[in-house]
Amino acid sequence: MFSYSVYSRKTTGLPTDNQQYKYDIKNYIQIFQTSQDIHPNDLFNENASFIQEGKQNDFSQGFSHNYFWIIFELENPAKKNRELYLEIDNPHIDTLEVYAWDSVRNTFQLMYQCGDRMKFHTRPINNRRFIFPIESVSNSSAKFAIMVDKRNASVSFPMMIWDRIYFDTEEKTNNLFYLLYFGGILFIAVFAFTIGLIMRNYRLIFYSFYAGLMGFYLFIALGFAFQYIYPDSDSLNNYIRSQVMILLLISFIAFTISYLNLKQNHSTGYKAQLIIAGILTSFFILSTVFRDFAFENIVLLLKAVYLLIFVSFPIILWSVVKIFKKIEFQPRIYLAAVSMLFIGVSIVNLIEFGIINEAFVPVNPILIGSILELFIFSISFIFEIKWINDKKNALLKAASEQQKELIKAFIQGSENEGNRISKELHDNIGSRLALLKNQLKRPTINSEKLNQDVSDIFSEIKNISNELSPNSLHILGLAKSTKSLIDTILIATELQINFYAEEILILNKHIELQVFRVIQEALHNIQKHSEAKTIDIQIIKEDSKLIVTIDDDGKGFDLSRQFTGKGIKNMKMRMDSVNGHFDLSSQINKGTHILISVNMDR
Question: What is the per-residue pLDDT for 119?
């Protein structure tokens, strides 16, 4: 005969009005634990030694090897029947059995049996949580017994009584929230990955994997994966959750190393995180290869993972403190974001060990922590991308302005060159031709002098022509043309010029011409401004590049004041036109150094 005398809890009374509601019953339940799988009638055997009381008023019992039983009585004083739902908000209970008292047969009868060790369709309501329909008859009471089997793991069973209509309304709102949450995480992951590839930013790429795995882990932890991905499996749920958790931690460590640049900023922390990531990778590989063993020891695996989490976080915190001395912005953002998730993870672990009652935490702490963490990181990345984009635009604008200045200098240089040639033709060639014309008008002509004057004028015109377009360059090549130019300078000046050139075959004549013009301009500037006595010129080949160096021992100049010179801008413009490199360095009283490099294969 069923004896209710040992049940000392008050009856859970439903409101008498017809308002929709939900009702917390934690103060109206009796919790037992047994070492054996028994029938609920056995709970009321006062002499049974295998029955112990659990922690009352607490849905979180901590880690245990026992079965747990919840007994409660529901009374309906209203004048109408009510459709109710009993909710147990833990999607990872291995087996749940719901019994109702049959007063006719004087025994508990099994109503529902389901769990994540059974296929999803065994649940009476298609929901990620455990939802059981119960009918409350007017002016009567009903007694229920629930068996919770989650042995060798953390046991929790948050319970609530719902009016069916109110539950359906709330569920729609909750599902909309989760749709927005998981959709947002998917967007963040895809967007970060795409931008990371475009910008070649590995921090964003690692962040995309971390965000995506965070979303997938919570999709599993909240029970959605069992409902929508593998509903026909009776064994995958805990295993998949542990595997994704390991991958999530590996991606978190990779993101941490990249975001804080630990390899450069804190090598000790970097090595420690690599070791932890290596252990986690080993766990993942071994639990994948030895899947059956992992199934049987899933709790041990999860405890090992939790241990690594609490080892990793202090090391990360230590690294962040060390990095504060070098950089400030990124460690602050990282610490603010990760602390949100760390608080959530800590609360979940305290719940699993039975230190905090899960009834006091209505929303999954990891869910809240992940929202805050991803929000902080996403905002920081948005500002960082904006800063990079603004800097890029500023550089492009500066480059555009510099390009305009170089083009202007090039045009001005060309005009100056034209003016110089024009003046040379007018003042020198023109005047000499006028004198020659006057000689031809004389009655007596000195043939020898006339021939000499004509030859001199022809030579002058040839020199001017070579300056405009040196045909010898195309015939002799850069090295011999430069040697010819040097010989001309040596005749007209007292400079000492040391010249060394390798035999170089340049197929692109445009490159050859631009390099020669730069050498011409450099030698002209040295003669005009440097007061140098010695010039050293080298033309060599290094791999596929042509390298030209020009050094003088002149008076030098201050680059910060004179780098805007048109001749220098003109030389740089010529090298830019062939995608070459022009570098000039000078110190007062220590001479000037010019380096030219250009890819000969272009």
Answer: 93
Find the distance separating the first CA and the last CA of the chain, reported in whole Å.
99
Q: In the block, which residue shows the tokens 């958790």?
A: 245
Residue in this structure with the two tokens 């201050």, named with its chain if needed: 558
CATH fold of 470-602, please?
Heat Shock Protein 90 (3.30.565)
- 223 pLDDT above the threshold of 50: yes
User: Helical H runs in 324-364?
Assistant: 329-352
- Residue 113: phi and psi, rounded to 5, are -145, 125
Give 279's contacts (C-beta < 8 A, 6+ positions apart). Answer: 308
The sign of the dihedral angle between the CA atoms of 251, 252, 258, 261 is negative
Determine contact, residues 581/514, Cβ cutoff 8 Å: no
Q: Which fold has domain 12-167?
A: Immunoglobulin-like (2.60.40)
Domain ranges (residues) in the chain: 12-167, 175-395, 470-602
C-alpha 179/C-alpha 123 separation (Å) is 22
**341 pLDDT exceeds 70?**
yes
Give the contacts of 436 (CB within 8 A, at least 6 positions apart): 450, 453, 454, 457
Sign of the torsion formed by the C-alpha atoms of 402, 408, 411 and 414: negative
The pLDDT of residue 416? 65
The string of pLDDT tens digits covering residues 55-66 is: 887 888 888 889
Instruction: Give the three-class secondary structure for 234.
Output: coil
Contact 352, 154 (CB under 8 A): yes
Biggest CA pair distance of the chain = 159
What is the value of pTM for the model shown?
Answer: 0.65
Q: Which residue has the tokens 């990620």?
A: 128
Distance of CA 25 to the CA centre of its chain: 46
Residue 126 has pLDDT above 90, yes or no: yes
Residue 5 has a pLDDT of 34
Whether 211 contacts 189, CB under 8 Å: yes
Is the model's pLDDT at 471 over the cut of 60? Answer: no
